[in-house]
Amino acid sequence: MASSTSFMLSRGLPSNQSMKCYNDFGSKSCSSVFLRQSSPISVNIDKLNLNLSPKNVVRCSVLGVQNSHAFSVGKKFQLDDVIEGQQFDRGLLGNIFEVAREMEMIEKNSPGSKILKGYLMATLFYEPSTRTRLSFESAMKRLGGEVLTTENAREFSSAAKGETLEDTIRTVEGYSDIIVMRHFESGAARRAAATASIPIINAGDGPGQHPTQALLDVYTIEREVGRLDGIKVGLVGDLANGRTVRSLAYLLAKYNNVKIFFVAPDVVKMKDDIKSYLTLQGVQWEESTDLMEVASMCDVVYQTRIQKERFGEQIDLYEEARGKYIVDQKVMSVLQKHAVVMHPLPRLDEITVDVDADPRAAYFRQAKNGLYIRMALLKLLLVGW
């Protein structure tokens, strides 16, 4: 049924809704302009090739809209892309966590959800992944969307032929409504976002950041410990190359009276940029070499893997770092009863298998929470609040 609506043209509109429109400058028609829904939405018209003066406001009236989405668009999400931990403030984090709790109810009680029906998500992974890629794909499908996936884009895409990241993004955005990307270079996600006209989610960029992991980590801490203010967190392992701990530090800085302990071998200590940021934000931090002492004081022990792939040919340095700090039954014996052990996974030998049976071992619950956070982000980026 035809409808008539005025709206502002916007970024990242889904590929399965089309319309014809006219503007205030006469009879120039914008056919095949994409529309997310027939209610007013705001946008940046700079990326639209309409040959119109930027001084003018374009107003279009919908002559006909074919809407295959089963979920109406809500208030626009504050972010166009998810690239780094610094994008989030405390209020936004709390609101995202509320949506994540709603997503948990959907996953458990509404297996046939159609919130994202008609939307396509492309996953571009230039580095190996199990949890992140599968949880994003599961999140999209559980909300009724579809997935286009490249598991090893570094070898099995045109990148192997020398295609630039920018060209890949410009191509893939033509097939999808949102791109989830993991890349081996720090800063790659920011480059992709600068190029794309659809949302980009950073699923890890080399030793840079992993913001969705940090979101699920903070969400897990809140659920497991019961609070985020006044907590003590021990970050353990490869803190130089671990993008998860970097992003987590940025988010923990949003809360009050947090203290962070850094426990790492000398060759993989936390970098100065994170320490400086925490100091500027008034967050207490301390470096320690005594995991037992730190574990006895902390609400969260966040263990990480020593990342062999970041050492290149310096295998001697890797062997020096590996195995220095291990969470085992001795560490668990000093851990407080309410405290938890977390890990972004995969693990090697930095947490012994016999720890898994301890109820304070939260890392598999943590991985499950990644589904709810990613469901929430996909919903928010594509259809809003």
From TrEMBL:
GO biological process assignments: 'de novo' pyrimidine nucleobase biosynthetic process; amino acid metabolic process; pyrimidine nucleotide biosynthetic process
Domain Aspartate/ornithine carbamoyltransferase Asp/Orn-binding positions: 229-380
Domain Aspartate/ornithine carbamoyltransferase carbamoyl-P binding: 82-222
Pfam families, sorted: OTCace, OTCace_N
Alphabetical list of PROSITE patterns matching this protein: CARBAMOYLTRANSFERASE (PS00097)
Transferase recorded as keyword: yes
GO molecular function, one term: aspartate carbamoyltransferase activity
InterPro entries with a match to the protein in the record: Asp/Orn_carbamoyltranf_P-bd (IPR006132), Asp/Orn_carbamoylTrfase (IPR006130), Asp/Orn_carbamoylTrfase_sf (IPR036901), Asp_carbamoyltransf (IPR002082), Asp_carbamoyltransf_Asp/Orn-bd (IPR006131)
Domain of life from the UniProt record: Eukaryota
Catalytic activity: carbamoyl phosphate + L-aspartate = N-carbamoyl-L-aspartate + phosphate + H(+)
Keywords: Allosteric enzyme, Pyrimidine biosynthesis, Transferase
Pathway(s) where this gene product acts: Pyrimidine metabolism; UMP biosynthesis via de novo pathway; (S)-dihydroorotate from bicarbonate: step 2/3
Keyword Transit peptide attached: no
Segments traversing the membrane: none
Assigned EC number: 2.1.3.2
HAMAP family registered for this protein in UniProt: Asp_carb_tr
Function noted in UniProt: Catalyzes the condensation of carbamoyl phosphate and aspartate to form carbamoyl aspartate and inorganic phosphate, the committed step in the de novo pyrimidine nucleotide biosynthesis pathway.
Family: Belongs to the aspartate/ornithine carbamoyltransferase superfamily. ATCase family.
Subunit structure: Homotrimer.
Name this polypeptide is given: aspartate carbamoyltransferase
